[in-house]
Structure formats: structure tokens, C-alpha cells
Amino acid sequence: MLDDDERTVLEETERALARDDPSLARRMRRPGARRARAARHRSVVVLVTVALVVGLFWLALPGQALLVVMVGVGALVGLGWRPRLDRITTALRPERREP
């Protein structure tokens, strides 16, 4: 634990940083808010993409559906989504058996 003097110095430092960079102070107060907002945006992109693809397949337009999927994946990448290839390669890697 911090003693009273250290806590006072820390609080003064936090106030000075908040004065110098208000956007940093906002991000530090709500660290999960940005991540939650990005997750909502990605969910909306996925739902809209799926709805459009289903509708285009229903209208017998698979070429346009493929285009919508590519645009949807591009939008997801633009929103910060990255595929986790380490999980895929681990799943595809054969297990090593020791004799």
C-alpha cells in the first residue's frame, strides 16, 4: 500500500496529466468503453452482412453475396478485427505422440 505522502503525490500527478491531456484522462477512466463500442460496431457489421448475404442468396444473386461478404470483412478489418491465426494453426497441427 501507499502511504499518505505517496498517495498525495500520485493524485497530484494524475491531476496534472488530466490537465495536460484530457483525452488520455477520459480513456484512463473508462478503459473498457472503447473496446465495448468497437465490439458493438463489429456486431452490427456482422449482422448487416449476414442479412444482406441471406437476402441476396434468396434472390439467387451469389456473386453479389460474395461481394457483400468481402466488403463486410473489409469493414471488420477497418474496425480493428484481426483473425487469430495462432488458433487455426494450432488446430491444424498434428499432435505429436511420443513413443
Indicate the multimeric state: single chain
Give the structural class: mainly alpha
The helix/strand order is HHHHH
Cα-atom radius of gyration: 24 Å
The major pleated sheet works out as:
none
Strand fraction equals under 5%
Number of strands: 0
Q: Between the first and last Cα atoms, what is the distance in angstroms?
A: 52 Å
Q: Give the helix level as a range of percent.
A: over 70%
Label the overall shape: elongated
List segments where confidence is low: pLDDT < 50 over at least 5 consecutive residues.
none
- What is the helix tally? 5
* Overall average pLDDT: 83
Keywords: Membrane, Transmembrane, Transmembrane helix
Organism: Actinomycetospora chibensis
Protein name: DUF3040 domain-containing protein
Pfam families: DUF3040 (PF11239)
Secondary structure layout plus pairing:
Layout lengths: L3 H17 L1 H8 L1 H28 L3 H17 L6 H8 L7
Overview of this protein structure:
There is one protein chain. The protein has 99 residues and is mostly helical. Helix content is 79%, strand content 0%. It has five helices and no strands. It has helices at residues 4-20, 22-29, 31-58, 62-78, 85-92. α1 crosses α2 (22-29). The termini are far apart.
Feature tags:
99 residues, mainly alpha
Short description:
This protein is mainly alpha-helical. 79% of the residues lie in helices and 0% in strands.
